[in-house]
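Quick illustration, no need to memorize.
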Amino acid sequence: MFVSTGGLEFDKEKPSILLMHGSGLTHIVWSLHEQFYATQGFNVLSVDLPGHGNSEGPALKSIEEISNWIKSLMEKINISKITIVGHSQGCLVGIDFASRYPNLLLSLVLVAGSYKMPVNQDLIDLAEAGDEKAVLLMMKWGYEGSKAFIGGNPVKKIINSSREIREILSVDLKACNNYKNGKDSLKKINCPTLCIFGDLDKMVPLEVGSKMADLITNSKTNVIQNCGHMIIFEKAFEMRKLVKEFLIENKK
């Protein structure tokens, strides 16, 4: 398994943050976040899920399997509590982990997600076929308006082969589509939780995200203006300021 630490040595005396990427992506999506959190007194564990990026093995086929993998990672590096910051699919993972392993979680940050994330069957079919149109659809729905990125769109740079679309992205999309325990899991979350949404998100509309946040005890919500689903890119500096304030407030 590959884990980036934001360039700093892991220190068991510090609280630890696990950054969980979304469907088909890798730890690279957190490039504007890792070092920032690491310099604020936290260990950063920015992971590549199995089969993604630099991590070996096949992609995990369910949200529950990913939660179990996080638990195994914690055991491997011998840490007892963690904060999960999850984006999109990473929110489902955070919700599931919080409900099943509450004693292992210090706090939770859910970014551009909900407790259920149904995926259009046409998108799943395209991904299973390794068709690049699957990535183009993700980009079309992922960003607010027509965004130009320096050096090219980061999503297309990460998912850039038919094999990755077929063996990684399609597996992740099906895992999201098949996760049905979200609403019950929300009721079991008892740790401090921050929900961050983009007001122009097409994948998880603000109304949908807000309904989820209302179901979580001890949660607070921030809405970032003029922002779509890819908050981690579009409004990285604004997002990480909100996360930093939340983490410091709930640091133990």
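The chain has one domain: 2-117+179-249.
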